[in-house]
Amino acid sequence: MEVAVKNSERFPAHPLDDLQLSRLQQAIEGLNSEQLVWASGYLAALATYPPKLKQAANESPALTLLYATQSGNARSVAEALADRFQASGYTPRLVSAENYRPRDLAKEKILIVVISTQGEGEPPESAYGLFSYLEGKKTSTLSDLHYAIFGLGDSSYDQYCQAGKTLDRLLDEHGAKRLLDRVDADVDFQPQAETWQQQIHDVVKQHQPEDQALVIPLQRSTPVRYDRNNPYQAELIERRRITTDDALSEVHHLNLEIDPQRIRFQPGDALGLYFRNDPAMIEELLSLTGLSGEAKVTLGSEEMRLNQALAERLELTQLHPSVVRAWSSLTEDRRLSDLSENIEQLRKFVSDRQLIDLVSAFPAEVDEQGLVKLLHHQQSRLYSIASSQRAIEDEIHLTVATLKYQSHGRNHLGGASGDLTHRIEETDRVGVYVVENPSFRLPASPDTPMIMVGAGTGVAPYRAFLQQQESLGTHGRNWLVFGNRHFHRDFLYQTDWLGYRKSGLLERISLAFSRDNQERTYVQARLYEEGAELYHWLQEGAHLYVCGGVEMERGVYQSLLAIAQTHGGHDEASAAEYIESLRTQGRYQRDVY
Amino acid sequence: MDIKVNPNELIKANSRYLRGTLKKSMADQATGALSADDAQISKFHGFYEQDNRDLRLSRQQQFLEPYYSFMLRARLPGGVCTPQQWLTIDSVGRELGNGTVRLTTRQTFQYHGILKANLKPLIKRINQVMIDSIGGCGDVNRNVLCNPNPHNSSLHREVHQWAKRISEHLLPKTRAYHEIWLDGEAVAGGESEPLYGETYLPRKFKTAVAIPPHNDVDVYTNDLGFVAIADADRLLGFNVLAGGGMGATHDDNTTFPRLADELGFISPEDTLAVAEAVVTVQRDFGDRVSRRHARLKYTIERMGLSAFKAEVEKRAGIRFDALKPVKFTSQGDRYGWVEDSTGQWHLTLYIENGRIADTPEATLMSGLREIAAIHQGDFRITPNQNLIVASVPEPQKDRIEQLARQHGLLSDRQSPTRLASIACVALPTCPQAMAEGERYFPELMNRIEQITDNYGIDKNAIVMRMTGCPNGCARPYVAEIGLIGKGPGRYNLQLGGDGIGLRLNRLYRKNLNEHELLKTLDSLFKLYAEKRLANEGFGNFTIRYGLVKPVINPAEDYHDTP
Questions:
Q1: Is the ipTM, as predicted for this complex, more than 0.90?
Q2: Is the CB of residue B70 less than 8 Å from the CB of residue B119?
Q3: Which of A346, A466, B18, B454 would give a disulfide with B176, using CB separation of 3.0 to 4.6 Å?
C-alpha cells in the first residue's frame, strides 16, 4: 500500500482520488502484460455498457427484518416472514437487535420489527441499545424510513406490548413513516402473526417491487490531507468503560466517527490526537500564579488569550525537567536549584508530578508571557487503532487506559486519557490524524499464521487485525496471547475473542492474569510454558507480533531466546541470530510504548 | 416417523456415559463457562452453570462474558451428616464458594458462586469426607428425602438406612464422575448403565420417604414416595406413592402440578425392586420429545394408573397389598429442643431461607462451625431447609444452646408463619428465575406480619412459600399461600393448600405487584379472622368459604378459575 502511494507520482494527471487510485493499483498488481491488455479492454467495455450496480457490501439492504426476542417467539415470527419474502424474490436482511447498529436506521429503506415486551413494559435486553439510541439526543432524522411493527406481549400485564408501542412512537417522532399500523399480539400470537405476515408482505410488494435495482452513485471527493498540523475533527459517538468497577485499571472503549472519504487507515496504524487540559487545573494554576486567563499572549506567530493557550496548546501534565529548571530560576528556593543540577533526582521528581504540583510547592513570580515561554507545546498522543476500516468504514475504535494517580496531596489524571475518558462527552469532537505504522502490518499472504502477543491495552491492534481478516473472509491459523490482571475484571474485548474463536478465526487463546493467583504469571511466562507450540508455529512461518509496554516486550524477548534454545536446539548466540532473522524477514514485529 | 426428539436426549446419548467434553471445557481458560452441551452434562455431576444476572447487561457493555459461576448440590440422602463432615462443608463454602452454604428443600446443601477452576478442588475436598454430588441435578434420581424424625431415633435410623439404600441403588453406574473429578482410572471400554441406559431418564426424578404423622418431606409431591408404616419402633413396610411433581409452565395448560397416586403397601425387602421398577417404567414410557411433559406424573396420566401399576408389579415381581391407614398432621418443622425415647436431645434451628452465612446481623456460619467442633451426634438438614442438631447428650445441651444463641441461630422472635415459610434461591444466580425469591421474601414477610398482627391471627402458622418461577423448588403448590414469580416484582397468588401437604392449591390472583398482593392478603386475612371456625387453618378456610375450589384432579381441573 505504501509503495502504491509513492508510485502515484508516476501517473499522469487523472480523475481518480488517492484512494481510488491505490485500489486500482492493488487490483492490477502482479498481472502480466497479456492480462493487463485484457483488463484494459474489459474496463473500456464497462465504460460503454455500464452494468446495473449491485448494492455495495457496506450499504444497507432495501429491506431489513429486525427482531428483539427474549423467549424466541419474536425471532420465529421474523424468520417466518423472512422466508415469505425470500420465496417471492426479496433478499431481506434478518438481524437480531443486539447485532444491529442503531445508527444504520438512517440508511434503511424499509424496516420491519418484531419485538416482545418484558415484565414492566421494558424491551428485551437485546434492544436496549436501539431504544437508548432512539431516546437519545443524537438520533438523525428518519424521514426516508418506512416501517412496520409486530409487538408481542401478555395481556395479563399492565404494560401490554409496551415495547412495541414505545418503539412505534419513537420512530414516528423521528419522522419515519408507517407502512402498516402496529399489531399488538397476545400470548397466543400465531394466528395474528400469519395474517400480519401476509399483509406486510403485500404492502412491501406495492411499496417496492423486488426487481427494482438499487443504484449507488459513486462519490467524488476532494482529497485533503489531515496530519498533525491539520487534524481532522472526529466526533466521539460512543464511550464505555470496559473494565469492571473493581478492576485495578480503568480502560475505556472509544468510538470516533470519521468520514471514510477523508480518513483512511490500515490495521496496525495508530491515531494521533490532541486534547484539552483540565479547566479546573487551569483555574487553580491561574489563581496560584495570580495571572489573568484573559491576557493576550503570543505563541510563535499566533496571538491568543492565555486561557486558550493553556487549554489547547501547552503541555501541563507531562512535566519536563527543563520546565523545572526554568521554574527554578524564577524562585529563590535552594531545594529546586539543587535538584536542577542532578538529572537523576530531577527525573524522579517529575515522574509523579504535573506542572500544578511544581507551581503550588514552589511559588514564584511570573508574568503571562513568561509562563507561556517556559512551557513546552502540547504533543499529540498516539493510540493504536482497535478497529478495521474494511470492517467498519466510518468509525475508529480506541482502547484508552485512564492514567490516574495520587501524589503530593493531589489526584492526577493523564492529559489525553483524562480528557478522553473523563471530560469530553459523546458528540464532542477531537482533533485526530492517522499515524501509519508500516512496521506493524498483517502478513502479505492472508493464510500466514499469526501469533499476537499483547498485554493490557496492547491488545487493541489485534482487534483491528482480526476484524480485517473477518471482513476479508480469509485467514490463517491465529493465536492470541493476552495478559492483564484479573480474568473477571479486565479481560479486554473478551466477547470479541470468544466470538472469533467460535467462528474459527482465532484458533488458540493463551492467557496470563497476574493477580488471579498467588504467583504472578505474565505473558512472557505463558509463552515460555507453551514454547514448544510457539516454536512449531514459527517453523511453519508464523508472524509474531508484540504490543505493549517496554518491560513486557523485554520479557517476551527473553522468553523467545529461551524457547529457541529449548525447542530449537540453538545456543545462546544462534538463538539471538534466529530472532534477528525473524525480525529482518518482517516476521517479528513490535509496537512498544 | 417424523418425531423430533428433544436435543437433550442427543446430548446424553453422545456423552459417552456423562463424560461429554467436560475435561476440555474445564481446561479452557478463555471462558468461565462450559460448552453448551457440557453445561447439560454437568448437571448429572451435580452442578449447574449460572451467571450473575445483576451483572449481565453491564458486562455485555464491557465486552465481557456474563459472570459465570457454578452451583453445586451435594448428594446427602435424608440430609444426615456428621460434625466432621460439617466442618469440611463449612470450610469448602468459605474457600471455594461464595462464602455461604445453602440448605435446600431436598435436604442437602449447595454451594453458589463456584468459579470453574475451583470445581475440581471442591469436589475433591468434599469427597475426602465421603460426600459426592452425583445426580445432584440432571435426569436421574435426585437426593432422596427422609423425614429427619427427632422424636423416634431408632425408627429414624432404620428408615434413613432405606433412604440411603434407595439413593445408592438408583445411582448412575458410570465412572465418569471419578475419572473427571477424582482422577480415577479411565474405564477401558465396555462400560454400561444397566438401570438407566445411555440416555438416562427423560427428566429429573425425585424420591422421598416419610414417617407419619410428619409430612415435612411433602411425600405426595415426589415422583416416588415411600410412607413408612411402623409398629412403635419396628418398621413394617411402606405405602408406595408415584407420580407427584411440582413443576409447571406459566400459561401452558398442558402442564400442572400433581400429587402422587397411591399404589399400595409393600414389605421393606421389596423396596429396592419397586423403586427400580418405577424408575425403569418412567425410563421406557416417559416423554422424550417435550421436556415440559417428561416427568413421571405425565407418564402416569398417559398410561392410566392401573396400567402403570400393573407394569410396576410385573417388573418388580411383586403384588401391592392394600394401603395401610395413615394420618399426617403437619408439613412444617417443629423448632427447639425435643427429647427422644432414649433420653437424647435434638435441637431444630430455623435457618431463614436455608442460607448459612456470616452477616452483620448474625454469624450463623461461625456458630454452626463452633457447634460442629464440639457436637457428638449428627446434623440433619430438614426438607424445609432448616437444620437439626441431633442426638445431643444431656450434659452438652446447655453448651450447644449457648453457642446457638450467641450466634443468632436461636431466637424466639420469629412469627409462626415465618417459621412455616420457604423461599427458593432465584435471583441473581438461578437461570430460571423470573422474580426474586430469598433476597426479597424476608422483607415481604415483615409486611405480611404487620397484617397478621392487625387481625390477631399472628399466633397461627400459615404455610407460605415463594418461588421465583413456576418450576416449584420450594413446593409452592402445596402451600396454604403460594407465591409464584411471574416477572420482576410480580407474583401469582395461589390459595387452598391444607397445611399438611395433601391438597394442591389453586391460582387465585394473577400477576400481582407487592401493593396489590398486600391489599389482597389484607382482605383475605380480615375475612379469615372474622369467619374462621375454631382451629381452622387458613388454607382450609379458603376452601370452605368458597374463595377457591379445591383441586381434585389437576389434569382436569387445575386450570379452572378459582
A1: no
A2: yes
A3: B18
Strands (E), A219-307: 232-241, 251-257, 270-273, 296-299, 302-305
Task: Establish whether the linkage from the previous residue to B442 is cis, with ω within 30° of 0.
Answer: no
**Looking at beta carbons, which residues of chain A come within 8 Å of B57?**
125, 128
CB A154 within 8 A of CB B492: no
Distance between alpha carbon B467 and the CA centroid of its chain, in Å?
Answer: 12
- Give dist(CA A500, CA A466) in Å, integer: 8
Contact between residue A387 and residue A463 where contact means Cβ atoms under 8 Å apart: yes
Backbone angles phi, psi at A104, to 5 degrees: -70, -10
Give the H/E segment covering residue B266. Answer: strand B261-266
The candidate with the shortest Cα–Cα distance to A412, out of A452, A354, A361, is: A354
Q: Cell 410385573 belongs to which residue?
A: B314
Q: What residues does B465 pair with on adjacent strands?
A: B422, B482
Q: A270: helix, coil or strand?
A: strand
Write out chain A residues lying below 8 Å of B487, CB-based.
Answer: 118-120, 157
Give the alpha-carbon dihedral of B281, B285, B286, B288, to 10 degrees. Answer: 140
CA atoms within 13 A of residue A148's CA, in its CB half-sphere: 23
Of B29, B61, B487, the CB nearest to A119: B487
Chain-chain contact of B29 with A157 (C-beta, under 8 angstroms): no
* Chain A residue with Cα closest to B53: A125
d(CA A403, CA A317): 11
Cell of A31: 498481472
Residues of chain B with Cβ-Cβ distance to A128 below 8 Å are 57
B421 near B463, Cβ under 8 Å? yes
- Asked if B490 and A187 come within 8 Å (Cβ–Cβ), the reply is no
Measure in Å the smallest separation between the Cα of A163 and chain B Cα atoms: 15
What is the DSSP code (8-state) at residue B410? -
Contact B339, B347 (CB under 8 A): no
- β pairing state of A429-435 and A232-241: antiparallel
CA B167/CA B279 separation, integer angstroms: 12
* Chain A contact present for B67, CB below 8 A: yes
pTM (predicted TM-score): 0.81
Q: Which residue, A211, A187, A243, A143, is CA-closest to A459?
A: A243
Q: Which of A391, A392, A411 is nearest to A402 (CA)?
A: A411
Taking the C-alpha atoms of B518, B521, B526 and B531 in order, what is their torsion angle to the nearest 10 degrees? Answer: 180
- Cα separation, B418 vs B464, whole angstroms: 8
Helix or strand or coil: residue B522?
helix
Listed in sequence order, the residues at least 6 apart from A35 whose beta carbon sits closer than 8 Å to its beta carbon are none
Q: Would you name the residues of B annotated as active-site residues? A: 73, 142, 204, 206, 424, 430, 469, 473
Residue carrying C-alpha cell 487493541 = A460
CB contact under 8 A, A119 and B56: no
DSSP at B150: S
pLDDT tens for chain A, residues 1 to 593: 333 333 333 444 566 765 566 667 667 766 766 677 777 777 766 666 554 444 444 444 689 999 997 767 888 889 889 888 888 888 888 888 877 888 888 888 899 999 998 777 888 877 888 888 898 877 778 988 999 999 998 877 778 899 999 999 999 999 999 999 999 998 778 888 989 999 999 999 888 765 443 433 344 434 567 888 899 999 999 999 999 999 999 999 999 999 999 999 999 999 999 999 999 999 999 999 999 999 999 998 899 999 999 999 999 999 999 999 999 999 988 999 999 888 889 999 999 999 999 999 999 999 999 999 999 999 899 999 999 999 999 999 999 999 999 999 999 999 999 999 999 999 999 999 999 888 899 999 989 999 999 999 999 999 999 999 999 999 999 999 999 999 999 999 999 999 999 999 999 999 999 999 888 889 999 999 999 999 999 999 999 999 999 899 999 999 999 999 999 999 999 999 999 999 999 999 999 88
